[in-house]
Amino acid sequence: MNSPDMIRVPILTRVEGEGGVTVHLRDGTIEKVELNIFEPPRLFEALLRGRPLEDTPDITARICGICPVAYQMSSVHALEAALGIQITPSIRQLRRLLYCGEWIESHALHMHLLHAPDFFGAASGIELAQRFPDEIKRGLNLKKFGNRLLEVVGGRAIHPINVKVGGFHRWPDKTQMAELIPHFEWGMLAAMDATRWVSGFSFPEYEQQYEFVSVSHPDEYPMNEGEIVSSNGLRIPASEYNQYFVETHVSHSTALHAVRRHENSSYLLGPLARVNLNRDRLSPMSRRLDDDLGCPDLSCNPFKSIVARGLELVHAYQEALAILQQYNPSGPACVDYRPRQGSGCAATEAPRGMLFHEYHVDADGKIVSGQIIPPTSQNQEQIEHDLTDYLTRRIATGATREEMAVDCERLVRTYDPCISCSTHFLKLRWEEAT
């Protein structure tokens, strides 16, 4: 006799946005797992159509309050490719500094307030702070200095306003930049201590075989430009993204799923993918810390993504500090350009993983069409596969329904999903029986 059963997690806590998980079982066996994203579609691609291309960085920044820089950087790189703009080394360096600020505030937040509580059975970061007041205070300060960097370089911490196609509206004030240096000297060392702390957590025994995908650059840790590579040997320019990846609509979610086009298989983005594919380009202190911690299985256990984020937090602080120490702007903050008809693509690394943008521009400099593929949208297929595999193992150990509901939330949080970002577009098709 077939007996259907279901485990529901109606609301995922400690994630950006609103979503849930539904596990369908029959006779004690998992039939399917659904990551339910029920936020309304954001429709940002449609909002851009017909607007001047100069509006794009400020509009796309509103897609997310946690990682607006990723959307701004992806948009300006793609539009500059369409217009044939070559930015100066000084502008490029300042963009990396701005991106470092976003990685710092996002990683510090997720590590200390969203993910760490799971390892101690705490319901919130506030509850965890009662047990680890010094560690949580340190994490909040790490985040604070990332936010301050965004204010100084970007004009404000949430949805920065200093970014534009071709560069920046203005160079940041030298005095304000210099004032950040002692904070970032402290932050680099504090980030190392925070990473040592999280590396000592008790991690669930769970390993998975992934196809890791990330941006990769030959000379630097991936952040704002490079090729798209995978652990299965893929190496392509960003302009060929749509030849190898495709989005599909699923009935249980207002977000599209992305899979490898020819293999129809899932893939993993984010800190685990970046560290695994680009470990040798981490900053010197991050590499030294990674060697000291000795995490050979870091790359195949999603619960250890918190350690990967810690390594990247150290990297972002060290790179930001180096740029701050040598900051001496010269020349214009923006490169002049003329509108022209064209198309351009770009892929950058948001804190949660690779973000892809493509734009088509007309001769008057208006947006004809755009495509925005967020990292959480791309990770959803892999999240569902991992939930199915992990819960199947938990069933075999005799875990209760209540325990597995908690397991769902804990596993989903390892990906640091930005659910609001992922609901970027929805193709709606009406079907009517006759």
Give the topology.
Layout: E1 4-9, E2 19-26, E3 29-37, H1 44-48, H2 56-61, H3 68-83, H4 89-115, H5 125-131, H6 133-154, E4 163-164, E5 167-168, H7 174-199, E6 213-216, E7 227-230, E8 235-236, H8 241-244, E9 245-248, E10 257-260, H9 271-278, H10 284-293, H11 305-325, E11 342-350, E12 353-361, E13 367-373, H12 375-396, H13 401-413, H14 419-422
Antiparallel strand pairs: 1-2, 2-3, 4-5, 6-7, 7-8, 9-10, 11-12, 12-13
Number of domains: 1
Spatially, the strands of the biggest sheet line up as 1-2-3
Helical proportion?
40-55%
Let me know the largest β-sheet. 3 strands, antiparallel
By oligomeric state, this entry counts as single chain
Instruction: Examine the secondary-structure arrangement and name the CATH architecture.
Output: Orthogonal Bundle
What is the class in the CATH system?
Answer: Mainly Alpha
Uncertain ranges: 425-434
Q: What overall form do the CA principal axes indicate? A: globular
How far apart are the first and last residues' alpha carbons, in Å? 35 Å
Structural class per helix/strand content?
alpha+beta
Q: Which fold name is given in CATH as the topology?
A: Cytochrome-c3 Hydrogenase, chain B
- Proportion of beta-strand residues: 15-25%
Name the CATH superfamily classification. Cytochrome-c3 Hydrogenase, chain B
Number of helical runs? 14
